[in-house]
Design a protein that fits this description.
Elements: H1 2-21, H2 36-47, E1 50-63, H3 68-81, E2 94-99, E3 109-117, E4 128-143, H4 149-160, E5 170-174, E6 187-193
Antiparallel strand pairs: 1-3, 1-4, 2-3, 2-5, 4-6, 5-6
Helix pairs in contact: 1-3, 2-4
Length: 195
């Protein structure tokens, strides 16, 4: 019982974030525009692209990105069943979605759904644990509605110019519980490999 209680804030955050994130495609650009300050910050993030690595525990699913909420629910149940929820406090983990391909180009994608964790773990199937490493990636934290992530990705691509391009897999870290803040305050980190 205590294990479930100590884990439930992270679970609630992850499920709420995933459910709202995936009401539509993560990359689908909307008519919303980014502020000049945000565009300058994205340009700086592109200029500072470098190596990125993080430990993740995840489960792989195949389906639509719109199904990620249910995928995350399944992952969280398996995470808790292996006793991993009691290992961390809610501020030590963040929900992640790894997109293996552009979700706008397919109806059935392979997604890795799980948590970024502070250390490497040994887990049992169907969970997997690994250190994700990108030799060159843009790391940018967007503050605003999930629907603007497509515009952020478009800006990253634009600032890369014609000699570099965005690659997959790309990673989204979901930092904010969107049920407790205004959509303009939602924090999502995008880790976009470039080549």
């Amino acid at each position: 019982m205590n294990k479930a209680r100590s884990f439930s804030p992270a679970l609630a955050l992850a499920l709420a974030a995933a459910a709202l994130l995936l009401t539509g495609s993560a990359w689908a650009a909307t008519p919303s525009t980014l502020s000049d300050d945000e565009l300058r910050a994205i340009n700086t993030a592109v200029a500072e692209a470098g190596p990125v690595s993080m430990n993740v525990v995840y489960q792989t699913f195949t389906g639509s990105i719109k199904d990620t909420g249910s995928f995350l629910q399944t992952f969280c149940a398996n995470f808790a069943d292996q006793g991993l929820g009691a290992r961390y406090t809610p501020d030590q983990i963040t929900a992640v979605v790894v997109l293996t391909a552009d979700p706008d180009t397919t109806t059935a994608a392979t997604l890795a759904v799980g948590f970024a964790v502070p250390d490497q773990l040994v887990v049992r199937p169907p969970l997997r644990a690994q250190k994700l490493s990108f030799s060159q990636a843009v790391r940018f934290t967007h503050v605003g509605p999930y629907e603007q992530l497509g515009a952020v990705e478009d800006a990253i691509s634009s600032f890369l110019g014609s000699t570099r391009r965005t690659l997959f897999p790309a990673l989204l870290r979901l930092y904010t519980d969107p049920t407790t803040v205004d959509p303009s305050e939602i924090r999502t980190e995008m880790v976009v490999p470039v080549g």
